[in-house]
């Protein structure tokens, strides 16, 4: 019986460990470059491949998303400190995504809202959600169906820049538009 309990506890420990997600280790030694205009809009998620290929099934081609000259290739929107206001430049990017999603009702996106590390964890979760919902609202106003959009807030939990300065915080205040299911 005792051996059974030992194996049971060991199995539960391994399963619990497998369910945990380990975040990035913060490194204070690396310098983060400032995002600037066009470049900041084209940032991609570290470690994530945002390039797609193939047919979406409804005639949509994911190559449209990879064309560097297309606003569809810009899938990260940056925000000012403690703000969920969308700029005019970002509205043009959102317009392009809305048009693409409206043409392709079988395609869906996940809007990930993020915040920098300043503020409480709860506040940053709410701020990330407000940012993602601001983008969601603009997409829906332009005809994208609600079931094509999923909103997730990670708050400060998934930073792309690990330093503790304004340039890092600027990169972490963002909404990522992720096409899913393909």
**What's the helical proportion of residues?**
25-40%
Q: How are helices and strands ordered from N to C?
A: HHHEHEHEHE
Q: What value does the Rg take, in angstroms?
A: 19 Å
The percent range for strand residues is: 5-15%
Largest sheet: 4 strands, mixed
The dominant shape is globular
Overall average residue pLDDT: 79
Separation, N- and C-terminal Cα atoms: 48 Å
Number of helices: 6
Low-confidence stretches: 20-51
Structural commentary:
Helix content is 39%, strand content 13%. Strand 2, helix 5 (121-141) and strand 3 form a beta-alpha-beta unit. The termini are far apart. The chain has six helices and four strands. The protein has a four-stranded mixed beta sheet. The protein is of the alpha+beta class and 182 residues long. It has helices spanning 2-19, 37-41, 63-66, 88-103, 121-141, 166-172, and strands at residues 76-78, 108-114, 149-155, 174-180.
Helix-strand blueprint:
Layout: H1 2-19, H2 37-41, H3 63-66, E1 76-78, H4 88-103, E2 108-114, H5 121-141, E3 149-155, H6 166-172, E4 174-180
Parallel strand pairs: 2-3
Antiparallel strand pairs: 1-4, 2-4
Kindly list the characteristics that best describe this protein.
182 residues; 39% helix
In short:
The chain is an alpha+beta fold and 182 residues long. It has six helices and four strands; from the N terminus they run H-H-H-E-H-E-H-E-H-E.
């Amino acid at each position: 019986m005792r051996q059974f309990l030992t194996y049971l506890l060991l199995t539960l420990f391994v399963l619990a460990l497998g369910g945990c997600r380990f975040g990035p280790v913060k490194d204070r030694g690396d310098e983060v470059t400032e995002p600037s205009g066009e470049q900041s809009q084209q940032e991609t998620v570290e470690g994530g491949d945002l390039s797609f290929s193939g047919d979406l099934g409804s005639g949509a081609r994911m190559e449209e998303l990879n064309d560097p000259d297309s606003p569809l290739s810009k899938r990260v929107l940056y925000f000012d400190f403690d703000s969920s206001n969308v700029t005019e430049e970002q509205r043009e990017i959102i317009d392009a995504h809305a048009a693409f999603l409206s043409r392709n009702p079988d395609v869906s996106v996940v809007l990930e809202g993020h915040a920098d590390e300043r503020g409480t964890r709860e506040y940053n979760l709410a701020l990330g959600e407000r940012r993602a919902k601001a983008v969601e609202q603009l997409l829906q106003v332009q005809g994208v169906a609600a079931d094509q959009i999923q909103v997730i807030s990670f708050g400060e939990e998934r930073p792309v820049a690990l330093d503790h300065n304004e340039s890092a915080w600027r990169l972490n205040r963002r909404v990522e538009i992720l096409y899913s299911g393909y």
